Amino acid sequence: MKTDIQSFHILTGGPGSGKSTLLEALVRHGYAGMDEAGRQVIRQQRSVGGNGLPWADRAEFSRLMLRHDLHAYRRARRHTGPVFFDRGIPDIIGYLRLCGLPVPARLERAARRYRYNATVFILPFWPDIYTQDEARKQDLATAEATCRMMWDTYRACGYTPIEVPRLHVEDRVRFVLGRATDTAPRRAK
After folding, report:
1. What tens digit of pLDDT does each residue of 115-149 get?
2. Could you give the CA distance from residue 129 to residue 166 in angstroms, rounded to a whole number?
3. What's the Cα-to-Cα distance from 168 to each of 12, 15, 18, 20, rounded to whole Å?
4. 3-class DSSP state for residue 89?
5. Would you tell me how many other CB atoms lie within 10 Å of the CB of residue 29?
6. From CA 42, how far away is CA 125, in angstroms rounded?
7. Residue 6 has what DSSP assignment?
8. Which residues in 139-156 are b (16+ Cβ under 10 Å) and which e?
9. Are the CB atoms for 127 and 138 separated by under 8 Å?
10. Strand pairing report for 119-123 and 8-13
11. How do residues 45-103 score in pLDDT, each as one tens digit?
12. φ, ψ for residue 3 (rounded to 5)?
């Protein structure tokens, strides 16, 4: 079982900044990747008619995201080599703070216990590529505020955020791999 959290790398930022596209490119290069909890929860809740959605019950949505992220973290421990996460547990804290909701103690404990590499990659707000869809309903102002909140949240959780430049996806891949530790390519199990 994998225990070195130095190879757990977070990609975060506001919605529509290219995180999922970057993760997909890293996976094509042979790295393991963990999908964003929010989109998975929205898809699952819609399929069962649940209300754990960001436009219905934000507290339930955050609870379901934490459950997803804890499961993803455990799955990641089975991999050898680097694992890239499209958002991490601290993102949920930032989400709740952005919504003006209390952060449950269990979420605070999870953020302290389940750690990632100290360097966090933040993809900046990029209005030129931002699009709304069935799961991404935030307006531009909220997308930009989310990015700022992720900077603040990750710093408060003891991480060092660095900005990923607004570049073509392959250039972003090179940027991330050049600054991540433990990035010898290995196929995901």
Report:
1. 999 999 999 986 676 565 565 456 667 778 888 99
2. 10
3. 17, 17, 10, 14
4. helix
5. 13
6. 22
7. G
8. eeeebbebbbbbbebbee
9. no
10. parallel
11. 989 999 998 888 999 999 999 999 999 999 999 988 899 999 999 999 999 999 999 99
12. -130, -10
